[in-house]
Write a structure and sequence with these properties.
Blueprint lengths: L6 H9 L7 H12 L5 E2 L10 E3 L4 E6 L1 H4 L13 H24 L3 E6 L6 H16 L1
Parallel strand pairs: 3-4
Antiparallel strand pairs: 1-2, 2-3
């Protein structure tokens, strides 16, 4: 199936996709702050610029988009249009994520990933956030 947008329209639409302060990230931040956790945001001095850094617990949290990081859920599937490009793009993102995770662990950080799909529905959201708190403090 052909793209219904011109390259300029597609480029403009893609440029609006944010990498920081996304809805799932804001949800996690509000919840953790309400639970009494204090953290730094988007630490440039750490590999991968983690979304949240909890120095007291020596823990970093990445709130990942399922599509962009190749999660094995419905939201993480490859589009039918230009699948070779998207598979290569996601594979590069996953390789970068692994490199950053190894570097963080080597430096003594605990790495936690929260997936966008876990926060989508209220049932899974509550369980995911409770699991996050137990992993941080446990």
């Amino acid at each position: 199936m052909a793209d219904i947008m011109t390259p300029a329209q597609r480029s403009e639409r893609m440029s609006r996709i944010r990498s920081q302060n996304t809805k799932p990230e804001m949800l996690v931040r509000r919840f953790l702050h309400g639970q009494g956790f204090r953290f730094r945001l988007h630490a440039r001095d750490l590999p991968g610029r983690p979304d949240l850094v909890l120095p007291k617990y020596r823990t970093v949290v990445f709130v990942e988009g399922c599509f962009w990081h190749g999660h094995s859920c419905q939201k993480g599937r490859v589009p039918g249009t230009n699948p070779d490009f998207w598979q290569a793009k996601v594979a590069c993102n996953q390789a970068r994520d692994k490199r950053n995770q190894r570097a963080l662990r080597r430096d003594g950080w605990r790495v936690i990933r929260v997936w966008e799909c876990q926060l989508a529905k209220s049932k899974t959201r509550a369980a995911a956030l409770a699991r996050l708190v137990s992993r941080i403090s446990g």
